[in-house]
Predict the 3D structure of the following.
Amino acid sequence: MLVSHARRLAIIDDHPFVRLGMKAMLEPEPDLDVVVDTDDAHVVLRAVIEGKVDLVIADINMPGMDGFTLLKRINKEKAGARVVLITGEETSAHLSHAIEEGAYGYIAKTMPRRELVDIIRHALTSSGPLRQKSAEHPTGQARPDGSLPHGLSRLSTRELTVFKYLVSGVRNNEIANKLCISPKTASAHKTNILNKLGLRNLADLVVYANSHS
């Protein structure tokens, strides 16, 4: 049952089962109402221009107008709608692009329901897009004593190496090959890095890296 202040969402993905699955995950949330469900970017853009949507959840890889292009078009319209990008392959290259273009969030299709809902709610209430959130943090560059920025100093030498690979877009299996370790060990290093930095996922890690160059 919807509440009077429910936020209006649009989901755009070229795979119907992805849209169906996301709608099913959002259905228990009374304050989130999916009002547009389509594979046509022009339908979403029209709904945004007409003021019918508060948040667009857009797949990055779509035929025709992809998620990044739709994000640019929506931001250009200045209609007030925010955009969260979704992807089946979470890479730091995509994350960096999302940050540069002013996305309010980034979701992997494998993400648990609770985390997906949290990211959507945060995107709706955030004071600014990912790039602004990153810019609000002081950078960690050019320390006279050569020390690491706060947070990174908690990482071991091996974890720092994995951190650099992750934010450079290197995948888990490639990291394992480069460091002559098992993929399971590489994944464990990633988990330890996230825990030590108080981050949840690769999206948070890339934002953190951009604010601590």
User: Anything to note?
Assistant: The mean pLDDT is 81. The radius of gyration is 18 Å. The longest helix spans residues 183-197. The CA atoms of residues 144 and 205 lie 25 Å apart.
